[in-house]
Amino acid sequence: MTIRPAIETDVPQIASLVKSLAHYYLDDPSRELPSWLGDTLTYEAFTSRISGIGYLNFVFEESGSIAGYISIKGAGHLYHLFVAEESQGKGISRLLWEHVKKHCHSNSFSLRSSIYAVPVYKRFGFSESGPVGTKDGVSFQPMELRS
Hints:
four-stranded antiparallel beta sheet
Protein backbone atom coordinates (compact mmCIF):
# COMPACT_ATOMS: atom_id res chain seq x y z
CA MET A 1 0.00 0.00 0.00
CA THR A 2 1.24 3.44 -0.98
CA ILE A 3 0.06 7.03 -0.73
CA ARG A 4 1.51 9.08 -3.55
CA PRO A 5 0.75 12.18 -5.59
CA ALA A 6 -1.94 11.60 -8.22
CA ILE A 7 -0.73 11.80 -11.82
CA GLU A 8 -2.58 12.15 -15.12
CA THR A 9 -2.40 8.43 -15.89
CA ASP A 10 -4.43 7.84 -12.68
CA VAL A 11 -7.40 9.82 -14.02
CA PRO A 12 -9.35 6.84 -15.44
CA GLN A 13 -9.17 4.96 -12.11
CA ILE A 14 -9.90 8.09 -10.03
CA ALA A 15 -12.87 9.07 -12.19
CA SER A 16 -14.24 5.53 -12.02
CA LEU A 17 -13.81 5.42 -8.22
CA VAL A 18 -15.55 8.75 -7.63
CA LYS A 19 -18.38 8.04 -10.09
CA SER A 20 -19.01 4.67 -8.40
CA LEU A 21 -19.68 6.52 -5.14
CA ALA A 22 -21.43 9.61 -6.53
CA HIS A 23 -24.88 8.25 -5.62
CA TYR A 24 -24.03 9.03 -1.98
CA TYR A 25 -24.37 12.72 -2.87
CA LEU A 26 -28.02 12.27 -3.85
CA ASP A 27 -31.04 12.51 -1.57
CA ASP A 28 -32.64 9.89 -3.85
CA PRO A 29 -29.88 7.53 -5.07
CA SER A 30 -32.06 6.28 -7.94
CA ARG A 31 -31.91 9.72 -9.62
CA GLU A 32 -29.16 10.94 -11.90
CA LEU A 33 -26.62 13.49 -10.79
CA PRO A 34 -27.52 17.05 -11.74
CA SER A 35 -25.41 18.31 -14.63
CA TRP A 36 -23.58 20.92 -12.51
CA LEU A 37 -22.25 18.08 -10.32
CA GLY A 38 -21.72 15.57 -13.10
CA ASP A 39 -19.63 18.13 -14.97
CA THR A 40 -17.13 18.12 -12.09
CA LEU A 41 -16.70 14.35 -12.39
CA THR A 42 -15.68 14.11 -16.05
CA TYR A 43 -12.35 12.80 -17.24
CA GLU A 44 -11.47 16.35 -18.34
CA ALA A 45 -12.36 17.85 -14.96
CA PHE A 46 -10.18 15.36 -13.09
CA THR A 47 -7.32 15.89 -15.54
CA SER A 48 -7.56 19.63 -15.03
CA ARG A 49 -7.45 19.31 -11.23
CA ILE A 50 -4.56 16.86 -11.26
CA SER A 51 -2.40 18.58 -13.86
CA GLY A 52 -3.21 22.18 -12.98
CA ILE A 53 -2.21 24.41 -10.13
CA GLY A 54 -4.39 25.14 -7.15
CA TYR A 55 -5.07 21.52 -6.12
CA LEU A 56 -3.15 18.99 -4.05
CA ASN A 57 -4.09 15.41 -5.06
CA PHE A 58 -3.05 12.07 -3.59
CA VAL A 59 -4.09 8.47 -4.16
CA PHE A 60 -4.00 5.41 -1.97
CA GLU A 61 -2.76 2.57 -4.13
CA GLU A 62 -2.89 -1.09 -3.21
CA SER A 63 -1.78 -3.93 -5.49
CA GLY A 64 -1.72 -1.59 -8.49
CA SER A 65 -5.28 -0.33 -7.96
CA ILE A 66 -6.41 3.02 -6.58
CA ALA A 67 -8.55 2.42 -3.52
CA GLY A 68 -8.68 6.03 -2.31
CA TYR A 69 -8.36 9.59 -3.54
CA ILE A 70 -8.08 12.96 -1.79
CA SER A 71 -7.98 16.47 -3.25
CA ILE A 72 -7.39 19.78 -1.49
CA LYS A 73 -8.31 22.99 -3.30
CA GLY A 74 -6.40 26.14 -2.50
CA ALA A 75 -5.14 26.69 1.01
CA GLY A 76 -7.47 24.31 2.82
CA HIS A 77 -10.71 23.30 1.13
CA LEU A 78 -11.16 19.52 1.16
CA TYR A 79 -12.58 19.11 -2.33
CA HIS A 80 -12.74 15.29 -2.58
CA LEU A 81 -12.13 12.32 -0.31
CA PHE A 82 -13.29 8.97 -1.63
CA VAL A 83 -12.51 5.37 -0.70
CA ALA A 84 -13.73 2.39 -2.73
CA GLU A 85 -16.71 0.68 -1.10
CA GLU A 86 -14.86 -2.62 -0.70
CA SER A 87 -12.02 -0.78 1.09
CA GLN A 88 -14.12 1.33 3.45
CA GLY A 89 -13.78 0.79 7.18
CA LYS A 90 -10.05 0.01 6.95
CA GLY A 91 -8.72 3.45 7.91
CA ILE A 92 -7.78 4.54 4.38
CA SER A 93 -9.64 7.84 4.58
CA ARG A 94 -7.82 8.68 7.82
CA LEU A 95 -4.45 7.77 6.28
CA LEU A 96 -5.16 10.00 3.29
CA TRP A 97 -6.36 12.83 5.54
CA GLU A 98 -3.28 12.64 7.81
CA HIS A 99 -1.02 12.51 4.75
CA VAL A 100 -2.53 15.56 3.11
CA LYS A 101 -2.40 17.59 6.34
CA LYS A 102 1.39 17.11 6.36
CA HIS A 103 1.60 18.59 2.87
CA CYS A 104 -0.94 21.39 3.20
CA HIS A 105 0.23 24.41 5.16
CA SER A 106 -3.06 25.57 6.63
CA ASN A 107 -4.45 26.06 10.13
CA SER A 108 -8.03 25.60 9.00
CA PHE A 109 -9.89 23.37 6.58
CA SER A 110 -13.39 23.53 5.13
CA LEU A 111 -15.57 21.16 3.15
CA ARG A 112 -19.07 20.51 1.96
CA SER A 113 -19.72 16.96 3.07
CA SER A 114 -22.30 14.59 1.71
CA ILE A 115 -24.73 13.75 4.49
CA TYR A 116 -23.46 10.17 4.33
CA ALA A 117 -19.85 11.19 5.14
CA VAL A 118 -20.53 13.59 8.05
CA PRO A 119 -19.64 10.96 10.71
CA VAL A 120 -16.25 10.37 9.07
CA TYR A 121 -15.37 14.05 9.10
CA LYS A 122 -16.54 14.41 12.71
CA ARG A 123 -14.07 11.66 13.65
CA PHE A 124 -11.36 13.77 11.98
CA GLY A 125 -12.32 16.72 14.21
CA PHE A 126 -14.51 18.70 11.80
CA SER A 127 -17.69 20.34 13.04
CA GLU A 128 -20.73 21.73 11.28
CA SER A 129 -20.20 25.34 10.22
CA GLY A 130 -23.67 26.09 8.88
CA PRO A 131 -27.04 24.58 8.07
CA VAL A 132 -27.48 21.69 5.65
CA GLY A 133 -27.83 22.97 2.11
CA THR A 134 -29.75 21.36 -0.73
CA LYS A 135 -29.55 21.95 -4.47
CA ASP A 136 -31.23 19.87 -7.17
CA GLY A 137 -31.58 16.80 -4.95
CA VAL A 138 -28.05 17.02 -3.53
CA SER A 139 -27.74 17.76 0.19
CA PHE A 140 -24.50 18.80 1.84
CA GLN A 141 -23.25 19.80 5.25
CA PRO A 142 -20.74 22.69 5.46
CA MET A 143 -17.99 21.75 7.92
CA GLU A 144 -14.71 23.17 9.16
CA LEU A 145 -11.70 22.24 11.21
CA ARG A 146 -9.51 24.80 12.95
CA SER A 147 -6.24 23.81 14.57
